[in-house]
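User: For a teaching handout, I'd like to show students what a predicted protein-ligand complex looks like in token form. I'll give you the sequence and the SMILES for adenosine-5'-diphosphate. Please answer with just the structure.
Assistant: Understood, here is the input followed by the structure.
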Amino acid sequence: MSDKGLATADEVCVEVSGLWKIFGHNPEAILESEETRTAAKETLHEETGCVVAVRDVSFKVNKGELFVIMGLSGSGKSTLIRCVLRLIEPTAGKILINGEDVCGYDNKQLINLRRHSTGMIFQHFGLFPHRSVLDNAAYGLKVRGVAKEKRYEIAREVLNKVGLKGWENYLPSALSGGMQQRVGIARALANDPDILLMDEPFSGLDPLIRRQMQDELIALQSEVHKTILFVTHDLDEALKLGNHVAIMKDGDIIQMGTPEEVITSPINGYVRSFVQDASPTKVVTASSIMEQPNVLLYEWQGPKAAMHLLRTNHLDEVFMVDRAGKLRGLVTLERLIELFRKGEESLAGAVDTDFVTATADAVLEDLFPLAASTGHPIAVVDEDGKFLGEIFDSTIMISLIQGRGEEDTGSTTTRANGKDENL
Ligand SMILES: Nc1ncnc2c1ncn2[C@@H]1O[C@H](COP(=O)(O)OP(=O)(O)O)[C@@H](O)[C@H]1O
Ligand SMILES: [Mg+2]
């Protein structure tokens, strides 16, 4: 699995608070009384003709994070991300981007924000049909007045990044849907924005291509570390891509959390009905279930010390690390006994290097085949091979059972807007 880790933790890039968007005549009137503020979307529509598209929404997106806004069609996702750039004017609320109040921006500042700091990617690609792939990718730079040679150079670079080298001179119509969306992504990346806003970018693609594009986005993100607001109506996509997921219903964010929190502690029946089909195998990570062994063997210890360690701790096997904490092997009681039988002095002969490792972000689904391929615990290591913890078959089975059908405890879950809806 690719790295979903955050580039810079805890540095807020986008902060939305108390955001409302009400379409229709005199929307402010709805905000004036508590009764209308809390009335159902349907009721308000019947009584006032107004549509509450976004209702008192608050969230924060950290720098370098992929934040998913998930919900059914009509739940307010597109309105919400358009409000962030003021492509739709919010009715009320506050939007801070990199600490600046976007609602106070004049036209010039807004244009600057849209051209330089942000990039938008839509479901229907939005490419110019009569311009080449290269011209499409370079379009944003052209608008910004970047000289032809320079903008083509950058466009070639980003097209290369999204795997479209060699397609520069084709028209979009010659490309498949997935490839056209890669052009859309390249065009957004060409501006080197801080923030990417993606509105159901993969929803129009075939399932297989869609999964491939998701994988590519994860790989790309581990390279570019953009702050991404990603809209989808697909839960699997949300859980796969998001560092955090916000679930919307009728304009409200009804639950926010990590994919794991959402799936293991759905806040109410509505979210539960979404996630009941989603398998914990796709979200529960190695780092969340791994255990710290009571003992570790160090490379410089001898066979007698190893034997002592295993005996006193009643173990059959122990992982061995070097001074830097890197995993070097697995020493089993069986091999140690064999070593003593042969009268060997060095521990090296008892070190099994044929152990199985997983990265911290591997999910249960990735761990099953690993567990099946070995009779030993799985070692969890970081990218430098440093030992982080171990996972037993039994732990995998238990987390599989616990991840399913549990009543929500709410303990690990951030409640959006502090509301408690029971649907
Ligand atoms: N321009 C508009 N005028 C009136 N109602 C709108 C307008 N745009 C969206 N809506 C309504 O706002 C709600 C949210 O829409 P939208 O943000 O497009 O949802 P989503 O992207 O989640 O499908 C829907 O009820 C939709 O009908
Ligand atoms: Mg939409």
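For the handout, you might add this sentence: The first helix runs from residue 28 to 32.
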